[in-house]
Each structure stands twice: as structure tokens, then as C-alpha cells.
Design goal:
Elements: E1 3-11, E2 24-25, E3 47-53, E4 71-76, E5 90-95, E6 137-147, H1 163-167, H2 189-205, E7 216-217, H3 226-239, H4 255-268, H5 273-300, E8 308-310, E9 313-315, H6 317-338, H7 346-380, H8 390-398, E10 407-410, E11 415-418, H9 425-441, H10 452-462, E12 471-473
Antiparallel strand pairs: 1-6, 1-12, 2-3, 2-6, 3-4, 4-5, 7-10, 8-9, 10-11
Helix pairs in contact: 2-7, 2-9, 3-4, 5-6
Length: 477
């Protein structure tokens, strides 16, 4: 037999807070004061991910080599790390002295994958309120013995051990980050800050202008003839003194010219946009009617499965009829909208209302921004780790629950008048999950705040091993 061993770093579930933790994932390293924080080859600080007590490692591990005193401190650059470590993005320190907990350097980027939607990826990775460290989770060192002779030649890892066997019991089939927990509010003031900052970020980015209903906010007259617009822009560009030859496009050296002509044409096309829309719709309707007639003639001639070509697209009769109905519907919908506006110029009346309602909508957004900023000021007056009551959160959320004025939105060649509420369900789910896990791993879950069923669910998920392997040290040589 060729026996060897591998060490598994198994999360403590539940966590034993009544004893000193010897090894853990995340949290802060206990490293000597004069030990420099590891950085990669480009000078970026690494993230601390684990501290291992060497005295708890079995003697046969690593063929008897490696330290058996002191601590191993593991660091990685989580935002750069790929399948292989390069440029010092993975570093392991060995220290024989146990220092005090060391805070990460100021320039360590914010982390936590569940908060990735909270990051402004166009700015620094240092995000206020988002932790610079993974939450601390104590681990037990479990020894796995196995026979290397039973491994396939291509295998270079120990046999997979099932989570049910590792924890000697039932385990959830989803991890702690897989789906949201059954919570509908934040548990701490920090969680409330995550939510409000997420709302404010979406407002600042203008994500509110497009909704899940497929409507894009209109602030001026729509343009249902984009092909005609692009053709006219190109014609004007070729006549412009700024055109110096070559291919004209919206990018590259002609981008400034393209943007200027687009702005000029947008002003001009505020008038007459209805007639242009009808002309565009009628042109499509004529094409599909001709295609329908062509396919009917082919069918009458006994040709089965005949198709028609529209540009680069090949269509069956079903596709032709669907598109014909679609453009006839666009035309009818625009006629119905215009019928709501007075003569002699319903186009002008509708355009004016689109502009007025669009401005009211933007005013509503500005009010929400100011309300969100005031909420953050209120949050900053509290200890971020303190529990926020259900009533405190309801009062804060109510200030952001004002429905918008009605606005005109553009769908696919259609116009609709709607109002919108700013929903922050996604932010609530993320913040509640972060709060629950932080309070649990810190041993600070207030009595009565969380049901036993929810804690059982959390612990079952914490035992889940995402496909493949638990955290390991050592293995087959």
C-alpha cells in the first residue's frame, strides 16, 4: 500500500466561541509587528485569507517536511488571481511568533464577492463601507488518509470527500452565497448603509432610465426611424469640411463629428417624427406583404417549405406573418397614442408632454438622491455593527418609496406612459445576507432576532462544499 495523507481545513459549524481559535479562514492575521504585509510584483497589497497553526498539522504531511511550529499565513491577490499564481499574487509566510491582529494597509481593495454589485467598477476598488477583509471563520484540521496506488495516473489530488461524510450528517445542496436567505430587511446599520448606497449608486448611474418593463425613459421626441437617421448623419458627414476621407463611423477619428451631427439632427428631428415613423413602418409592412405574396405563389406552385429573404435573414411564412403583424401593430399603437392629443398638431402636443413629464421624472430622481444622502447621514450617527430594528428600517425605507410621476417610455417602436417605483429588493437581499453571516461568525446574533429554522438553514449551507474540494493543505506527492 502507498498510504499518504491530506489535511482538510473544515469550517467549524457551529463555531465554538468558548475556546481560542488556532486556525481560521479570513479575518485578520496575527503577525509580528515588524513583519511587512505581502505585496505582489506590482506593489499591490495582497488579501489575507487564512492562518494555520503548524502544531496541529500531522507529522506525515508533506512527507514529513515543512514547519511544525508557529503559524502559516496565506495571502492572495483575489482580484488578479487566476488558475495559476503569477507575479507573487500568492504568498505564504511562516512566523514562529504570534503577533497581535494586524489591520490591512489603507490601499487594500474592498473584497467580498457577494458585494460585487455594490462596487463602482469605474472607480477605485476601495469602496466606503465595503469590508477589506473576508469574514473570520475558524476551521478544524481534519486528516484524510488515502492510498495513492488506487488513484488514476492523471489524478494529482486526493479523492473527493463528501460534505455529508465530513460533517457526519445532512448538508444543504446550496452554499451560503448561492441564494438569498429568508430575510426582508437589513439586520445592522451597516447593512442599511449597503442598501442605501446601492440605491444611490443606481440613481447616480442613471440605471433608473431603463426598467425591467423594457421601457427607456424619454426626455424628448422619439425616433422610430434609426436607419434613416444614421443614413442622414453619414450623408452630412461626407459633405462636412471635417471629413478627411476614409470610412466614416461613430468611433475612431470621426467620433467627435458623429456626436456633433447626431446632436444637431436630434434637434431637427423633433418635428416630423410621426410622419417619419409611419414611413418607416409602412416600408417594413410593404416588404413583408411582398414576401407574403411571394411565399403564397410558391405554395400555389407546389413548392414546399419555401422561404423569403429579408437582408441577411431567411424567413418562413410563419416568420413573415409574425413580422407583418408586428409592424402593423407598431403603426396602430402610435395612432392610438396620438388620438389622445388635440388637433391641429397632436405631434407637437405629445412632444411637449414627453418633455414636461421627463423633467418631472428627473426631479423625482433628484429628490430620491437627496433623501438617500440624508439617510446615509442618519446611518453614520449609529454604530455600524449595532442592530437596526424593523421599525427603524421601515421608517427609512418609507422615505424612498415615493412613486415617480408618470413619464413617457419608449419600448420597441412603441410609446407607453407609466410611473415607476425604485425597488431595492436586490440590495436588501445582499445586505441581509452579509449581516446574517457577519453576526453569526462574530457570535453576535441577538436572541430572538433570527428564527432557529433560519440558523439551521445557514449552518446547513455553511457545510456545503462547492463542487469539488474543501480547503486543503498538502496532498499526494
Amino acid at each position: 500500500m502507498h498510504q499518504t495523507i491530506s489535511v482538510i481545513l473544515k469550517r467549524q459549524v457551529p463555531i465554538r466561541f468558548d475556546e481560542a481559535h488556532r486556525s481560521w479562514l479570513g479575518g485578520l492575521p496575527m503577525m509580528p509587528r515588524l513583519t511587512e504585509w505581502p505585496r505582489d510584483g506590482e506593489g499591490a497589497p495582497l488579501h489575507f485569507i487564512a492562518q494555520i497553526c503548524c502544531a496541529d498539522l500531522p507529522k506525515p504531511l508533506w512527507n514529513g517536511l515543512g514547519p511544525r511550529e508557529g503559524r502559516l499565513l496565506l495571502f492572495v491577490e483575489t482580484l488578479k488571481l487566476e488558475d495559476e499564481a503569477e507575479n507573487s499574487t500568492v504568498q505564504v509566510l511562516h512566523t514562529t511568533r504570534l503577533g497581535s491582529e494586524r489591520e490591512p494597509p489603507e490601499d487594500v481593495p474592498s473584497v467580498r464577492h457577494s458585494m460585487s454589485g455594490h462596487f463602482d467598477h469605474t472607480a477605485s476598488k476601495n469602496q466606503d463601507g465595503v469590508p477589506k477583509l473576508w469574514r473570520k471563520w475558524p476551521v478544524d484540521i481534519v486528516v484524510q488518509e488515502y492510498d495513492t496506488a488506487k488513484l488514476e495516473p492523471e489524478d494529482c489530488i486526493p479523492p473527493i470527500i463528501e460534505a455529508e461524510k465530513l460533517y457526519d450528517g445532512a448538508v444543504s445542496q446550496k452554499g451560503i452565497n448561492g441564494t438569498s436567505f429568508d430575510l426582508d430587511r437589513p439586520l445592522t446599520w451597516l447593512g442599511a448603509r449597503y442598501i442605501i448606497e446601492g440605491v444611490l449608486q443606481e440613481l447616480e448611474k442613471g440605471n433608473f432610465k431603463s426598467g425591467s418593463d423594457g421601457l427607456t425613459l424619454l426626455l424628448d421626441a422619439p425616433d422610430f426611424d434609426p436607419l434613416g437617421r444614421e443614413k442622414e448623419i453619414e450623408e452630412r458627414a461626407l459633405q462636412s469640411p471635417d471629413y478627411k476621407g476614409g470610412q466614416f463611423s461613430s468611433q475612431g477619428r470621426y467620433r467627435e463629428l458623429y456626436d456633433r451631427l447626431t446632436a444637431e439632427l436630434s434637434v431637427e428631428r423633433r418635428v416630423g417624427w410621426v410622419d417619419r415613423a409611419y414611413q418607416a413602418f409602412d416600408a417594413e409592412i410593404s416588404l413583408f406583404k411582398a414576401a407574403k405574396m411571394e411565399l403564397e405563389q410558391a405554395e400555389a406552385a407546389g413548392i414546399k417549405d419555401a422561404t423569403a429573404r429579408k437582408g441577411d435573414v431567411i424567413l418562413s411564412m410563419k416568420g413573415v406573418l409574425w413580422n407583418l403583424e408586428r409592424f402593423e401593430g407598431y403603426k396602430e399603437q402610435l395612432q392610438n397614442v396620438l388620438a389622445q392629443f388635440p388637433e391641429p398638431d397632436p405631434e407637437a402636443a405629445l412632444t411637449q408632454e414627453i418633455q414636461e413629464q421627463g423633467k418631472l421624472f428627473l426631479d423625482w430622481v433628484d429628490r430620491l438622491k437627496n433623501t438617500a444622502k440624508c439617510a446615509i447621514i442618519e446611518i453614520e450617527a449609529h454604530d455600524p455593527d449595532a442592530v437596526i430594528t424593523a421599525q427603524q428600517w421601515e421608517d427609512m425605507a418609507a422615505t424612498l418609496s415615493e412613486s415617480s410621476p408618470h413619464f413617457w417610455g419608449e419600448g420597441l417602436n412603441t410609446l407607453h406612459k407609466k410611473s415607476r417605483e425604485f425597488r431595492f429588493d436586490r440590495h436588501v437581499q445582499t445586505a441581509a445576507q452579509e449581516d446574517l453571516l457577519d453576526l453569526y461568525t462574530q457570535g453576535k446574533l441577538p436572541s430572538g432576532l433570527i428564527s432557529k429554522d433560519l440558523i439551521d438553514d445557514l449552518e446547513a449551507r455553511a457545510k456545503y462544499i462547492e463542487p469539488g474540494l474543501p480547503h486543503r493543505l498538502g496532498g499526494a506527492s
